[in-house]
Amino acid sequence: MSRSSRVLVVAVIVSFCAFLDGAITNVALPAISEQMGGGLVLQQWVVDAYLLTLGSLILIAGSLSDSFGRLRIIRIGLYGFGVTSLLCALAPTGEVLVVARALQGAAGALLVPSSLALIVSTFSGPEQGRAIGRWTAWTTSAFLVGPLLGGILVDAVSWRLIFAVNIVPIVAVLVLMRPLGRDEPLLDRPRVDWLGAVLGVVGLGGTVFALIEQGRFGWGSPVILVPFVVGVAALALFVWWEARVAAPMLPLALFRARNFAIGNLSTWFVYAGFAFGPFAITIFVQEVGGYTAFQAGLATLPPTVMLVLLGSWFGGLAGRYGPRLFMAVGPLVAAVGFLLTLAVDADAFYWTQFLPGVLLLGLGMAITVAPLTSAILGAVDPTHAGIGSAVNNAVARIAGLVAVAFSGVIVGASLDVVGYHRAAIATAVMLAIGGVISALGITNRAEPIRVAALVDEVASPQASAPAPNTATTRAAEPAPDDPERA
Question: How far, in Å, are 153, 271, 481 from residue 83 at the CA level?
Fold first, then answer.
């Protein structure tokens, strides 16, 4: 196996580990709450505790990847993910499970940006677009395997095995990584923005706690108001700090690149829909439709199959013709799919009430995901691919985190038929907004932006444009989505 092929396989399996955990968990939520109590609130926390630390720490993980090396950070993340997965499997109470899920998300944050950055730093030109397409398609096989495997484990043995099963891919990828060696030492390492990381965790933690628990305590309760106010204040301080610190966790200058800014804004709405919609379907078909966990996994399987089969093809088309059309049409197709599921009633008859909409959802996802990833990463110089991919992954995970936290606000105390209809409409609106944003803002011609140069420019606005630092950057190439690359 060539080094580039091995890099691609490693990157796929590493991201597979992080994505599998999200995919395999949803089908187990009813079984977890049945054994441990807690209802919808515990179900939200099992999902959001993981997304909270994953989303808030993935930015600093991207910085660590750029500073200390992709391979080193991946290995640390894999060991941490393995240990915390076992903690989840052995959790005696719901509270312990939620804490273990938060620790697991922190370890998972080290995996995704480093794996994608490894691809961007290894491949270039049209091969990079195709590699990203393959990464996108095959990492989503976690969402193909997850619901089925999770359903089998929950129905036949216990929900606890859905966490223990993570050990298998972790061991496999650690073996595959051995021939890749270790990262070259980096003499000029940027400082790590630890204060920014703390502000991000506090900000997201406070606001998400308030959104999830408001149904139990009410917005007027100090238990809700205090964390919410502290969270909002911390998020405001986070933005203020990131604009002033010398080595920010989130380089705000990145957003001066049009495709990066617009692409991440679109990502927010698109991935909020991709997270919230399947979350609602999986719980509804089990608690109202009477599906088993395995049947619930089968119900949400078609979109993943379509994404795996068609994702790379649409990524190649976006590399040839540009990403705008695909990023605009894909979310709108997925939105129509969710509107079709408004036909559902308490019988939850799959073949007529769910399948047509689920198939359109899968087509929309396949059209959207790879072009979206390529457009955003194509707007950043490859030497800063770690922080670029981390920002995009953070936006996607935090969007899902917030969307799931809003579940109680949107559907009420439980996901009955009326609640599901509200969830389907809300999901369609999120997806449609993402498509419209892409149609109006994404450009098919975009040059990679150099983070270091922009940071210097922001720090010294009176100075003239800095000369390229040939030690850390290279000449800008047309983005992978530029038609002239073909």
Answer: 20, 28, 39
